[in-house]
Predict the structure.
Amino acid sequence: MANRREFDIAFVGLKPGVHEFNFDLDDKFFAEKGNTDLSHTKAHIKLLLDKKSGFMLLKFEVGGSTEVNCDRCGNPLHLDLWDEFNMVVKMVDNPEEMNEQEEDPDILYISRTESHLHISDLVYEFVLLSVPMQRMCAPDEQGNDTCNQEVLQKLREMEERTSENNANSLWKGLDKFKEN
Ligand SMILES: [Zn+2]
C-alpha cells in the first residue's frame, strides 16, 4: 500500500487556530486501499483543523461524486457525495491504551511525541460513510422501476435453473439411499 505523504499533516509546526487543507481523491486512491466498489470517483475533502493546546478539532467536509453499481441489476449509479464529519484528536502519553478504552469513534488519541497526523485512512472511511448503504436505481417520475429489466430477467432465469438443479440432485441422493 502506498504511503502518500500528502495525507500526513505536520501539525507540530502549525500555529494555534484554524487551518484549511484540501484533498482530492480519485480511483487510484481507493484502489490502493483495496476498494473495488467505487469507480469514477472524484471526491473532495476539505479539512478544517483547529489547533488548541493539547488537542485539535477536525472537521472534514466531503464533496464530489462517485459511481457504484445497483445492488439489484448492476447498473452504474452516479452518486453525489456530501457529508461532514467531526473529530477530536487528543495528545496523550498512552494513546494505544486510550484508543482501546475510548468508545466514542469521534475521539482519537495520538502520542504527545507525534509530529504528524496521518489522515489517509480517515478520509477513506469518511468517503465510504458518505455513500448510501442501499444502492438501488431510483424510480422514475412515474414511480416505475428503472432497474435494467433484461438483467433482472436473466437473474430470475438463473435462480430458477439453480433451484431445479438442487431439486434434481436431492432426488438423486434419495434414490441412492433407497438402493442401499
Ligand atoms: Zn438497478
Observations:
- DSSP finds four helices and eight strands in the chain.
- The pocket of zinc ion is lined by residues 70, 72-73, 75, 136-137, 147-148 (CB under 6 Å).
- The mean pLDDT is 91.
